Amino acid sequence: IAGTPVVFNVNGDAPGRYEIYQYQISNNTTEYKIIGHWTDQLYLSTDELQWPGGSQEVPSSICSQPCRPGQRKKTVKGIPCCWHCESCDGYQYQADTYTCKMCRFDLRPNENHTGCVPIPIVKLEWSSPWAVIPVLIAVLGIIATLLVVVTFVRYNDTPIVKASGRELSYVLLTGIFLCYATTFLMISTPDVFVCSLRRIFLGLGMSISYAALLTKTNRIYRIFEQGKMSVSAPRFISPASQLVITFSLISVQLLGVCIWFGVDPSQAIIDYEDQRTANPEMARGVLKCDISDLSLICLLGYSMLLMVTCTVYAIKTRGVPETFNEAKPIGFTMYTTCIVWLAFIPIFFGTSQSTEKVNFLSQI
Known about the structure:
Blueprint (H helix, E strand, L loop, with lengths): L16 E10 L2 E11 L2 E3 L26 E6 L2 E9 L4 E5 L2 E4 L4 E3 L6 E3 L2 E2 L6 H26 L4 H5 L2 H22 L4 H38 L9 H25 L4 E8 L8 E6 L3 H24 L10 H24 L4 H9 L1
Parallel strand pairs: 10-12
Antiparallel strand pairs: 1-2, 2-3, 4-5, 6-7, 8-9, 11-12
């Protein structure tokens, strides 16, 4: 009746004949629409197919899409053919299809987290504002110091220069010069030689300055204390004695530095932890000398001791006659220096180990 031959397959079954419908929405109405049929094989009109959203494209018939580079597969429990894609974030990189691993401490992941690349190394550059400002201050200080030295040399035999204590004045000017010159060492590219010079001269300039001032204030104090008891002059107030006392005080600083060299030789290191930011793109390694905060404070500790002792003597000599013009300027200098150091220590320990800290130290 249908006009088709009646046949049977080897199993004695008649071949299947099916109409294939799809449930579609058309003009806000729903209907089943014939999109093909089956007669021994599939006949499908793909132009008549509709998919959610009105798309004409056949949706992908897979459980999970392939993961992008830098993503690992996290399999779904009980469904081994399905997975979720998880990005390797932070300092991780894609080690294999299913694993993310951390980059080595001196490396960071590349742009798509498929491998690791070296972290850039930075140091304080001479062109940086953090270096230019201290250098300008240091140059002005050195020029001013040299002008004073030239003035002293020119008027070396005048009464006012002799009265100021020429020998200790030259020692004091040497210490001031070293304090300013150390700025250039702090900005220079760290290596074993530069780091060794930093250890030597960072505290040496201040030790020389404070040792000279301490010897001056001690001499003034002993002179006036002795004058209250007798008319005889106290011992060790000659220029030669003053120099011996000063250099003895300075030698303690040098001895401490030598011991430090023996216990912990100087070296330049690259610090990757200080600038290890949450964003790997901003990570940097800082090239610097291997000097810890504690070592630095120990290095400057002797200078602090000299400074405090000198301040004590400055307080004791505050009542000397007005015509004795050395004591009060020295006292004023030591008072202000104590205030600077009291501000410097907490600020120094409150800041992170960084290039800015090195610059801050050089400015102080």
